Amino acid sequence: MDLDTILILTALVAIAAVGAALALRRPRESAASTAVAELAGRLEQMAASQAAAQAALAERMQAQERALAKTLEERLTELGKRVGDRLQESATQAQQSMADLKERLAVIDAAQKNITELSSQVVGLQEILANKQARGAFGEIQLQDLVRSVLPPSAFEFQATLNGGRRVDCLLRLPNPPGPIALDAKFPLESYRALREAKDEAALIQARRDFATAIRTHFRAIAERYIVAGETAESALMFLPSEAVYAELHANFPNVVEESFRHRVWIVSPTTLMATLTTVRAVLKDVRMREQADIIQNEVRALLTDMARLDDRVGKLQRHFDQAAEDLRQIRTSTDKVTKRAERIEELQLEEATPAALVTAPVAGARG
Q1: Using one digit for the tens of pLDDT, what is the confidence trace for 251-267?
Q2: In whole angstroms, what separates CA 193 from the centre of its chain?
């Protein structure tokens, strides 16, 4: 039962109670009793109709409940199907994600191995650079790789020996001028590290002084040992196998660079050495082209000489042919004359033989 029905029944009960009370207090008022009886009858009718309405309402509510239950069941079934489909899709996506995750983890593992190997290589490189001899060998190997990648084998010599037994890392064999150029590798790593790791102003000043001193020591030694009058060019190259050291030198030590110029020692890094070697290759190519041009010119001159000789010989042969033709013409003339003389002789013989035949014929007849 709903709230409205309960309220109506409560009101009817209250009215009945009031009617009963009035009947008890006023038994003598018959008119009032009649009215109360009529009211009670109406109330009963209303209660009956209300009960019927309540039954119909209950019936409708049951029907609605059944329909709602059916709809709810259908919705739940559809929802369960959607949930199942979504769960299946989620499971498929989860499997795909797991597969992708495994692949990425495999890639990460490979990258981790590469990083580990690279770390070991870096540690090995640090150990190499910590040793002066190994660091020098590292610079020489880098120098050799750069030179071999640009120049032909005939244009350089590694560990070349100069007069006095001095050995240079590389000697670039250029034609005169300028002549062979010495190329030596230097790697002032300790002073550069001290410069980078300086903690205060005093340490920085000392590190700058040490770095400048190391560079000066190297290019002065190169100028003294590898610039030899009459044997090498008037300048030499100092190779720094680190772009960072080269950049620090040219950015913050211009006076040291200018001093190296005065000593005719040109400081190069891997990048600038590549450009220098490319220029050297162009110079060598130009020299070879000039040499080939001289050879071609000599061959052309020899060819012209041969052509003149051939023309002279052809002229002589032409003259021989002309002389032979003249001789043939004269021979033909002579044969023509001989032929004509023979014909005339033959005609004379015929003329002389004809009268003799005429004379001898009658004589023969007479004798007969």
Answers
A1: 889 999 999 999 999 99
A2: 34
